[in-house]
Amino acid sequence: xxxxxxxxxxxxxxxxxxxxxxxxxxxxxxxxxxxxxxxxxxxxxxxxxxxxxxxxxxxxxxxxxxxxxxxxxxxxxxxxxxxxxxxxxxxxxxxxxxxxxxxxxxxxxxxxxxxxxxxxxxxxxxxxxxxxxxxxxxxxxxxxxxxxxxxxxxxxxxxxxxxxxxxxxxxxxxxxxxxxxxxxxxxxxxxxxxxxxxxxxxxxxxxxxxxxxxxxxxxxxxxxxxxxxxxxxxxxxxxxxxxxxxxxxxxxxxxxxxxxxxxxxxxxxxxxxxxxxxxxx
Length: 281
Ligand SMILES: C[S@@+](CC[C@H](N)C(=O)[O-])C[C@H]1O[C@@H](n2cnc3c(N)ncnc32)[C@H](O)[C@@H]1O
Fold this sequence. Notes:
By secondary structure, this protein is α/β, with parallel strands linked by helices. It has helices spanning 12-19, 21-24, 27-33, 69-79, 98-101, 114-117, 124-134, 152-162, 171-177, 185-194, 223-231, 233-237, 242-260; strands at residues 40-44, 61-66, 84-88, 105-111, 135-146, 197-210, 268-280. The two termini are 29 Å apart. 41% of the residues are buried. S-adenosylmethionine binds at residues 10, 22-23, 45-47, 50-51, 66-68, 71, 90-92, 111-113, 116-117.
């Protein structure tokens, strides 16, 4: 399989400005992690380390891996210690990381990253198989990701705006450009069992999520626009130049504003979370 290198769309500043709630709304999987002082934990798609930092002090050792050099750089700057290291790894090809796979982790955790990592259909099952291989027998994989229907209004707005004839994209092409794979419970259960896991917990939750306020003095870096620019970067990259991107983001926000804004002016996206715990027997 040829490796497709991806552009780094992530920035720890943009992530903090427009998605600081992501590492914070994680009480359930942190409870399922049930951190123990002897645990050796692998955090898949660790980002800037803010989520990892919630359990570093309660475990023996953590390795955070993420495909974004910018996010790993931020994680190392803020949280690197004897107990916590962070390394650039494209988890679509996790099975190639000898040292990570053979480590026999007690627990592997992942928050809000699998819907990006599993986007590529050709490596979807092999990544889950590699996670299974990397655990010790009896070890657990604890995860939360966008589930089927996640941010459906945003995806629909991207498809509706960008399928206008002036862009020249077919709807099928736009689906290819989408950076996300929002798995169903059925797909996840089947895949976890196929690679040898016993599924201990699996649930899907509709969890409307309040966006950050666009009030940090840098227009467009937070709020709805900041979210669209950061999370939808792969759609926007397909446009011809910055002027086209700016006009398109403005149109998408115009379409979304009345859908996501409540009476008090707060803006909420229809997050759907798929979370679970799987044990290696
Ligand atoms: C929404 S952030 C979540 C970060 C962190 N887990 C948290 O809870 O804040 C998604 C992360 O997935 C990472 N990611 C996307 N594709 C990846 C891949 N193929 N391999 C590893 N990480 C990936 C991104 O770089 C990004 O840091």
